[in-house]
Structure formats: structure tokens, C-alpha cells
Design brief:
single chain; about 450 residues; alpha/beta; TIM Barrel; Sulfite Reductase Hemoprotein, domain 1; 5-stranded mixed sheet; 21 strands; globular; binds iron/sulfur cluster
């Protein structure tokens, strides 16, 4: 069995190295000053790897400048270029940054042609010592693979193994793989299948783990922790990104928590647990509200996802920002955390399910504000899946199984989707939320 260690600049991923914490800028890479500013803040906040969106060849020059200036300032955090549709852009970016993320679903439909495109990219990566992430997403698997296996965790695993074999054929091992989904059950299943398949094949590539389009606030954190901690607790996962529809700095404390906890540098604040039948009763003594949320999600996400228990009750206390101890027994906060974790692990839906991308350089509108407004106005639609996506390029594919989608087109226009079908196009942003609500009402 060979466990691969990937080198991206000064960072080593996999092969028993500590879990790497990463995030992604949500600036336009072409806006060099804004992106540099965000990179500096992320570096200061502990990002060990920073991804930037590179939509096309026009973004290569700014990418070069950002990379050069960061290095001149002594910031040596590896940069990752996020590429979707253009293998030519990937090739150019691979000459500049330490790692390139590609989405295989966007490579040529013809498998032979995709292999040729990939071989050219690999040759450049070998020459420049650049790592690659093969970043598959549940919502954007290629047509060929979904026609064979459906839109399933098995299809995700098969697609990943196909690309892993292409790497091995090209004698290229500087590769990390990810299989993200917004649905925690799909995501966990896909990574478990891939980990097993790699073990059986004898070559284990490092895995980048994350729940994609997790949303924001407590629910985005709980959903991310439930999915990611389930995998990390099984030794699956070498680098972590927590995707939140918030400033990327906010992702880092959650990712750091996960890396420290599963790197055995931090322990849960749970002080007792009693499992009777299919119900767990746990008592905490947590140092803060946030820590309680994270510990509870990590302690019980896996048990709920794997259906080991059906109910959980929270007891004990946490210390609030006011320095006071807040009792959990029978409290609204305890009930809320249980409801949120039940929803995150897809065991019980007490409100709508939201799918929202974190936004990136492709986002042309105020995603955070819009998402919060959509959440506020749809809070009564229990069980419905509503997506708010930053761009029309990847949004429709990535929103997977949403019932309704609000997708930014750019130029202050929006397309509204019912399932996978666009039902209203080019709607001015100022009217789009009203129209979304009206269409949902109509059914
Ligand atoms: S869907 Fe969101 S995160 Fe993904 S490329 Fe578009 S704007 Fe960026």
C-alpha cells in the first residue's frame, strides 16, 4: 500500500501529515488590490492554503502579480487556482501557482480528448512542481458518468477513480481528490466509497474534504462539521475547507477546530453521555456558545448520519460572552441545536433546506445579503430545498437537488429555476426575490 504525500509549495498534504486548513477568496482575481488584501487577512487568520478563482486566460496576469507580491511580502501560503471550463487556463495557471483545482465534469465530453487535455496539463505540472486537485462535485458530474451510474455517490467514486487512473498512467502523483456534495449523506457515502476503492487499488491519494454550498450562520457550520467530522473521525481527509456564504475569514476557526480535534490537539467539552435504546443524552461543560455548537455537531453528527441513534438531548451548560454560565437542560438553545443537527444529518426537517455557494470571483451580486433575505422570506417553507447561487456558469449544475434556485447571471440579472428548469430569465435583481416567492406560491 502506498500513501501519497502531495507537495504544494511549502505545504505537505496526506501521508500522515497534519490536516491542512484552507479557504478561498471571494474577490475578483482581476481586482489585484482587493484580492491581495483578502489574502493577507486570510494568511493572518491562519489559512494554510488559499484558493483564487481563475475564470479565463485574462485572469492569468493578475494571478501572477498577486503571487509575486505576496511572495515579496514574505507571505508564502500556497495559492491554488480554481479552474472550471478551460484546460488552457489550467495549463497557464499551473505555471504560476502551487496547485490547480480542476473540475473533471468540465473537461471534454469525449473521454479520449479529455485524456489528451489532462496529459498536457500534467506535463506542465511536472515541469513546474505544481499539484492538482481533482475536484468533483455531486452537481456537476459529466453526462457519460451519470448515464452509467446515475447521479449517485457510486458515480462520484467511479469518476474519481477514472481520473486517478489517468494520473497513474501519466506517472503523476502530486494529486489531491475531492468529492463534495451539499447533501451530507451523499458526501459521506462518496468519500467512504472512494477511500475503500483507493485502498483496494493499493495507492492512496490525499483527500480534500468539505460539504459544498453549506450556507451560512449556525446551520452552515453545523452541516459542515457533521459531514466533515464523520469522515475525519474515520481517518478520511487530509485537508479541509469549510464553505460558508460569509467572508472567508469566518471559515477558518471552524476548519481549524476540525483539524485540531482530529489531529488530537483538542477534546470535546462533553462531560457525560448516556445512550438508552436509540436516544443519547449528553451533558456538556462548554467554554463558549460556539464551542458547544462545534463539539455537539462533531460528537453526534456521525451517530445521526449513520442512524446509530434517532434522538439526542443536550444537558449541562456553556459559558456565554457575558461570562455567565447558561444552563442547557430544557433550554431553547439546546432544542435549536438539536433541530439544526437533525436537519444537517437529514434525519428531520424543521425548516427549509438551503443550498448556497460561498461565492467567489464569479459572483457579481451581493450574495450574502440576498441569501439572508431569501432565508428570511422563505423560513416558513419547511422541507423545501432552496438554492441561492453566485453565478450562472456553475450555479445551476452545483445546486444539485434544489426545488427552487435563485442564480445570479451577472449584470444585475437573475435566473430563477424550478428544479433543473429555468422558469424566468434576465429578471432584475430588485424584482427577483419577489418573483421567486410568487412562483413558489403558484407551485
Ligand atoms: S457557484 Fe458560486 S462558488 Fe461556484 S463558481 Fe459560481 S459563484 Fe463561485
Amino acid at each position: 500500500m502506498t500513501s501519497i504525500t502531495v507537495k504544494a509549495g511549502n505545504v505537505a498534504i496526506g501521508g500522515g501529515n497534519p490536516i491542512v486548513v484552507q479557504t478561498m477568496c471571494n474577490t475578483h482575481t482581476s481586482d489585484v488590490e482587493a484580492t491581495l488584501g483578502q489574502c493577507r487577512r486570510l494568511y493572518g487568520a491562519g489559512a494554510e492554503m488559499i484558493r483564487l478563482t481563475v475564470p479565463g486566460p485574462g485572469d492569468i496576469a493578475p494571478l501572477k502579480e498577486i503571487h509575486r507580491r505576496l511572495r515579496e511580502e514574505g507571505i508564502d501560503t500556497p495559492l491554488v487556482a480554481d479552474i472550471h471550463f478551460s484546460s488552457e487556463t489550467a495549463i497557464e495557471a499551473a505555471k504560476v501557482v502551487e496547485k490547480v483545482r480542476i473540475n473533471p465534469g468540465n473537461f471534454h465530453r469525449d473521454h479520449q480528448k479529455a485524456c489528451e487535455q489532462f496529459s498536457r496539463l500534467v506535463a506542465v505540472c511536472k515541469e513546474h512542481g505544481t499539484a492538482i486537485r481533482i475536484g468533483l462535485n455531486h452537481g456537476s458530474l459529466g453526462e457519460r458518468i451519470t448515464s452509467l451510474y446515475g447521479n449517485t455517490p457510486i458515480a462520484m467514486k467511479e469518476a474519481a477513480m477514472e481520473w486517478i487512473r489517468m494520473c497513474i498512467t501519466n506517472s503523476f502523483y502530486n494529486v489531491v481528490v475531492s468529492l463534495k456534495a451539499s447533501n451530507t449523506i451523499v458526501m459521506v457515502e462518496a468519500y467512504r466509497l472512494l477511500a475503500k476503492a483507493m485502498e483496494e487499488s493499493g495507492t492512496i491519494f490525499p483527500l480534500h474534504v468539505g460539504v459544498t454550498e453549506a450556507g451560512n450562520g449556525d446551520s452552515g457550520r453545523i452541516k459542515s462539521i457533521a459531514g466533515i467530522s464523520t469522515l475525519l473521525s474515520e481517518g478520511i481527509g487530509d485537508t479541509v475547507r469549510v464553505s460558508l456564504t460569509e467572508p472567508p475569514e469566518n471559515e477558518l476557526p471552524v476548519a481549524r477546530y476540525l483539524a485540531d480535534r482530529y489531529g488530537r490537539r483538542l477534546h470535546s467539552s462533553m462531560v457525560s453521555i448516556n445512550i438508552e435504546g436509540r436516544k443519547a443524552v449528553a451533558a456538556y461543560d462548554a467554554p463558549s456558545r460556539d464551542r458547544l455548537l462545534m463539539d455537539f455537531s462533531a460528537d453526534f453528527g456521525k451517530m445521526l448520519l449513520d442512524r446509530k441513534i434517532d434522538e439526542v438531548e443536550l444537558k449541562g451548560a456553556y459559558t456565554g460572552e457575558d461570562g455567565q454560565r447558561h444552563l442547557l437542560d430544557g433550554s431553547d438553545y439546546a432544542a435549536y441545536l438539536v433541530d439544526e443537527l437533525m436537519q444537517a444529518s437529514r434525519r428531520r426537517f424543521y425548516r427549509p433546506e438551503y443550498v448556497a455557494c460561498p461565492g467567489c470571483g464569479r459572483t457579481m451580486y451581493n450574495l450574502e445579503e440576498t441569501f439572508n433575505e431569501v432565508k428570511r422570506r422563505t423560513a416558513h417553507l419547511k422541507g423545501m430545498v432552496i438554492a441561492v447561487m453566485g453565478c450562472i456558469v456553475n450555479g445551476p449544475g452545483e445546486m444539485a437537488d434544489a426545488d427552487w434556485g435563485y442564480v445570479g447571471e451577472g449584470n444585475h440579472r437573475v435566473t430563477i429555476y424550478k428544479g433543473k428548469t429555468p422558469v424566468a430569465r434576465h429578471i432584475p435583481e430588485t424584482e427577483a426575490i419577489d418573483l421567486l416567492l410568487a412562483l413558489i406560491e403558484k407551485g
